Amino acid sequence: TIKTFKFPPIFLERLWNKFHHFPIENFIGDVDIFITSDWIEPPTKKAKKVTILYDLVIYKYPEETHPRIVSVQKRKLQWAKKESDVFICISQSTKEDAIKILDIPANKLKVIHPGI
What is the CA radius of gyration of the chain? Predict the structure, then answer.
C-alpha cells in the first residue's frame, strides 16, 4: 500500500527538524524500519531508523552552500545523530567524514555505493 501526503517542504522541515513533533507512524502507520535521507528527519515511535548520508559539504565547505540549507541540514543531522540506528554512507569518504565531523561511531556507519 502506498500512501501519499502533500505538505509543503518548509512545513515538514519545521515540524520535524525544528520542533521534532509527530512521529512518522502518525502518518503512515506502524513500520519496522524507516529510511530517511537528505532534507527531513521525522521522529519515530518504535521503528528503527536508517539515515542515508550523501556528503557533509555543509560542514566542510559552508561558504559554498546557501545559509538556509546549512541550518536546515545541521538541525536534521543533529536529530539523526541522536536517533538513527544505522547510517548508510554512499562512499568511504562520507563514512570517514561522519566519524571525524559528526563523531558517529564507526559501527553505526555502513558504506553502500549507489547503483545505476
Answer: 14
